[in-house]
Amino acid sequence: MIFNLGDGMKRVDVPENQVKNNLPIGTVLQLNGYDNPKFCIIKNLGITAGFEGHGTKYEVINIEDGSKSIKNTLGLEHISTKKDDRIAVYYTDTVLSVDEIMDLIKLSEQKQAADIKAKAEGEQARAKELDEIKSQYKHLERIDQSKKSSHALGAANIRKELKRVFPGVKFSVTSDSFSGGNSIHIGWTDGPLTEEVEKVVNKYEWGTFDSMTDCAGSIDSQFIDLYGGARFVSPSRTVSDEAYNKVAKAQGYPQAVFNTRSGQFDNVDYQTSENIKREAWKTKF
């Protein structure tokens, strides 16, 4: 017998909690919400005291996928008391047979074995990926070999990579930290296209953003763990006046002269100016 001594000698296992604290093995629980999964009780773990009171803990198996979990009777009510769509677990009058319970236990064991195998395969894949990264980027400085912050080291390694991939092109690579994160900015004039530089530097960015949910997140990157990176990595290409004018001439507009102040070409109409600029952004110099 379990007593609550806070308000005198009051039993908590009977009468009001007697039913839900002593549900038969095989009883089906129903979660309202998240596709309404059902669970089968396979073991009574006994009554325990918690912050919100006393209640039995049950080991259960998800009837659909075989996953195991623990459910507490605190707040547990019969399905007949369901009045709204709030997320809650209810117990039902359905009790599975011994054979059905054994089938669920077998399903759970199979899932556990599959999970263990998947975890081992995942760890092997990560270890292989790590070895390949180390082999491919031996020329970069690693975090465990540096006193720099992750974003500062990421910027330093980006400089090395860009110099290696685009020899002769002058890049400005700076890093910064701020409340909520850090950033690396890459700037250059003319030279390679933005998408070409992105292929080199995007792997240093760990921040993500889901515009559908308006939520920021992060990626798990072994490369960044080794060689640094930042929440935001921003490549920004500038086209020189000389390059703009070169493209204008190549497009058949020798009279067009790029005006830095207005950001447009003089001596041609607006639409022609925009077309020349778009072509310049697609041109490598």
Question: What's the SSE blueprint?
Answer:
Elements: E1 3-4, E2 10-11, H1 18-21, E3 27-32, E4 38-50, E5 53-62, E6 68-72, E7 77-78, E8 88-95, H2 98-136, H3 150-165, E9 171-178, E10 181-189, H4 194-201, E11 207-210, E12 215-218, H5 222-227, E13 232-238, H6 241-250, E14 257-259, E15 264-266, H7 270-281
Parallel strand pairs: 7-8, 10-13
Antiparallel strand pairs: 1-2, 3-4, 3-8, 4-5, 5-6, 9-10, 11-12, 14-15
Helix pairs in contact: 6-7
Word description of this protein:
The chain has seven helices and 15 strands. With 285 residues, the protein is of the alpha+beta class. It has a six-stranded mixed sheet. A three-stranded mixed sheet has the order 9-10-13, covered by helices on one side. Strand 5 and strand 6 form a beta hairpin. It starts with a strand and ends with a helix. The relative contact order is 0.08.
Q: How would you concisely characterize the structure shown here?
A:
With 285 residues, the chain is of the alpha+beta class. The protein has seven helices and 15 strands. A hairpin with a 4-residue loop joins strand 11 (207-210) and strand 12 (215-218).
* Class inferred from helices and paired strands: alpha+beta
As a whole number of angstroms, the C-alpha radius of gyration is 32 Å
> H/E element string?
EEHEEEEEEHHEEHEEHEHEEH
* Helix count, DSSP H or I runs of 4 or more residues: 7
| Main sheet characteristics | 6 strands, mixed
Q: Taking strands numbered 1, 2, ... along the chain, how are they ordered across the largest sheet?
A: 6-5-4-3-8-7
Total E-strand runs:
15
